[in-house]
Amino acid sequence: MNLRILRQYLAILMLLAGVTLVTRVDAQSVSVQVSSQDAYVDEPVRIAVSIENVPDFEGPFIGDVDGLDIRRLPGEQTMSSTQIINGRTTRKSTVNIGYEIVPKRAGSYVVPAFTVRASGEEYTTKPFRLEVKVSEVGDLMRATVRCKPSPIYVGQAGVMVLELAIKRYRDDRLGITLDESSLWSLVSDDLSDWGIFGSALQKLASENRRPRGEMQVIDGTEYVVYSIEKPFDPIASGTPSIGDVRVRMNYPLRLARGNDIFFENRLTLAESRPVSIVPTIENLDVRTPPEGGRPSTWNGAVGRFAIDVVAKPVDVAVGEPITLTIRLTDASGTAGLDGLLAPDLTMQKTLVEGFRVPRDAAAGVVEGRAKIFTQSIRATNDAVREIPSLEFSYFDPAIGEYSTIRSAAIPLRVRPSALARANVDSDSSEVASTPTASGLTQSATQVAGGILANMSPKEIATSLPLSLRDTALVIAPPLFALALLGGAPLARMITRRDHARGRARDARAQCERALASATNADDIERAVLTFVASRVGALQTGFSRGDALQALRERDARENTIEMLDRVLRALERARYGGVPLDTTEVRRVIDALESEALSPAKLGASR
């Protein structure tokens, strides 16, 4: 082969090689696909906008149309393909973006073009027409939302029920009646709006279940009724919101039989029509227990209860803890046990006469239809012979009245404390047999407040004086320690007293700042209790309603001020667990009343 022929041959090979390296990109375009141009009012029409071979585009853009709600669906789908034919490579890139059009009234509409922009160019779709009719549901579907029980009170626990009734469908030509499973499969779960019932349906789906349907005859027509339930624990009176609920389905008009890809004879939906319905609200009435006739020991319980109290141990010395186990059993089956509070022991007058009781509410444990609370109490003297019955009040919605029940009294043996016995043994001729004005022996009187660790400063100050030798034994160690420390405790005491005075002066300003930033009943209650604690010089930690009322009584506050504070704090407690709205005007009124109380500087130094 000569050189000329070789060159021609190489040139042909290079040309062929160049052909195989050519890559072509299909034309750029934007198109729209519509699921149907026949639509119904309030029924969504799905649209897909396809953008081919337009990189880095902006949009799509579309103008508003009066009577149509056009919204873009979240997400987009991107597809790429490569094709090689006769050495020619063709690449294609497509982005599909979904839209939904919801007609708001009947009529004929022209949906304008969708536009995308890229590199200074505009690409548009063709406009299309949409014919919208009113979809008459008629007797094909019914939907209601109701509450069980009804009426329901704040403090009860019930369920909200969405009942969806779908008319049974029978194809006379094929002689087939759709069962409840087939009818539910025609409900458009993705196109329906379920409101507050969405979580219940999601839970069923996660468990691979669905609502069960029951056949019922309503107004002479057979329906399959599906019930979707959601637990309901009301926090405020009135009609609660159920969210936007609209149920959509394709109701069958004609069935057909056909073979699928596995050549099995299957039933298919040959013709259908979309229907949708917004449920009606029935028997959805939330109420607050009435103010009239409300007992002082009521703390929000709604239902019908039984009370059982167990005490351990029942043979104790003065000041030793006794554990009370309080079981509240709901016989109504509708009480909201999660928010149920224990009886307020500070309001049990016969109990506080002989026992020291906690001022903070106990947390309970729910067991079935009962809630169990444990509290510790301590006898204040050895004359106590029993734990008196405890009162518990509740509102019974079945009769619309308040009721008060009482537990059985529990026999108790209380021995003098170890401190009392030491005093008796040290001077038996003077103490053991000397009667007091109340008829008790001197030893019993000396432990009237319990062991010293359980006594408040006021109780210590008001107890009968000890003998001279006993007094020396009691005060000598502290005096010796004070001398060793060079008076440091006294200095700290004076500093604490000055700090308490400063807190009292700044209490109003701090309370106003706390109320201004309060967002719920907890914040308001904390602000009020902190104000009272600062005014009386008490510790803020653990300061409760009972502490506040007792501190004001000890400082000779006016009774109407104490009653006003008690009323406001109880209202805040109800708002905390019951969602009852509270006007902060009443809160500031009680702050003004407390501010006007003449609490002397001497009294401000007292603490709990």
Mean pLDDT: 79
Number of domains: 5
Major pleated sheet: 6 strands, mixed
Strand proportion: 25-35%
Give the radius of gyration: 40 Å
Indicate the structural class: alpha+beta
Q: Give the number of helices.
A: 15
| N-C termini distance | 118 Å
Number of strands: 36
Principal-axes shape call: elongated
Q: Point out poorly predicted stretches.
A: 9-25, 420-468, 487-496, 600-608
Helix content range of the residues, please? Answer: 25-40%
Structural description of this entry:
- The chain is α+β, with helices and mostly antiparallel strands.
- The protein has 5 domains: 3-133, Immunoglobulins (Immunoglobulin-like); 141-286, no CATH class; 303-415, Immunoglobulin-like; 418-484, no CATH class; 488-604.
- The protein is 28% helix and 34% strand.
- The chain contains 15 helices and 36 strands.
- Strands 1, 2, 4, 6, 7 and 8 form a 6-stranded mixed beta sheet that branches. It has a 5-stranded mixed beta sheet with strand order 19-20-15-13-23. Strands 26, 28, 29, 30 and 31 form a 5-stranded antiparallel beta sheet that branches.
- Strand 33 and strand 34 form a beta hairpin.
- Helix 11 runs antiparallel to helix 13 and helix 11 runs parallel beside helix 14 (584-596).
- It is elongated, with a radius of gyration of 40 Å.
- The model is unreliable at 9-25, 420-468, 487-496 and 600-608 (pLDDT under 50).
Task: Jot down its keywords.
608 residues; alpha+beta; Immunoglobulin-like; six-stranded mixed sheet; five-stranded mixed sheet; 15 helices; 28% helix; elongated
